Amino acid sequence: MPNRVQPQSIRTVGELFANAAIQDVETPIYPPKRSLLSRVHLCQGDITEIEVDAIVNAANSTLQGGGGVDGAIHMAAGPALAKACRELYPGRHPCPAGDAKITPGFQLPSKYVIHAVGPRWSVYSDTQTMASQLASCYRISLQSAVDNKCESIAFPLISTGIYGYPIDEAAHVALKETRIFLEENNQLDHVVFVIFTGRDGDQKVYEKFIPYYFPHGPEDVTESVEPLSSAKGSVDE
Questions:
Q1: Mean pLDDT across 6-10
Q2: Any residues with CB less than 8 A from the CB of 161 and at least 6 apart, and which?
Q3: What is the spatial distance between Cα 203 and Cα 231, in angstroms, rounded to a whole number?
Q4: Of 2, 48, 63, 193, which is the most exposed, with the fewest CB atoms less than 10 Å away?
Q5: How is the chain split into domains, by residue range?
Q6: For residues 12 and 189, what is the distance between their CA atoms, to the nearest angstrom?
Q7: What CATH architecture applies to the domain 7-219?
Q8: How far apart are CA 167 and CA 163, in angstroms?
Q9: What is the pTM of this model?
């Protein structure tokens, strides 16, 4: 049986603050809300070993597997996963960028796989459109998890592998969409960001930007999800 990692064993944002792995910033983008710090986790490892209700696959438009995280998920899930994906998009009809579809997890520890098709980065494409498509991947994935009564979900950093999306910008999108969603939905107890093994730089990016979206702060602010106006555009990328 493959290794299985419980989300409760993965460090939360609150624990990262407590261990000084991350530190508060002077100008966070969102107000402090302590109750969120125990719901967001960060780790480096194999997403196929995380025993959550749903893992998100950084899929290509065919949903038929590929390299990196996508290939690892298909290999761990077994051939039934590719068959289920073919039933979602038969023939030559691709899944559009920004969309996400859910299938069973088959041989994975997770109940479901949510296949999110992120944008392929190009200097010739509109950056705002690509950011919107990437944000949609996170929103649809989170909503799909809730719609299927999931209480836990694990994400890779979508589109930052062979699709080439700049890691700093992708992390901002991931953290922003997660912050907004968790403010408005209480069903998800655990959202785990999983760094692909060996990509230490990705972990440092998350550690740098998490405090802007999930600050520790002196108090628990509950009245608004709106960004702090004084902090807009303050993050040094």
A1: 95
A2: 58, 67, 68, 69, 196
A3: 23
A4: 2
A5: 7-219
A6: 11
A7: 3-Layer(aba) Sandwich (3.40)
A8: 11
A9: 0.92
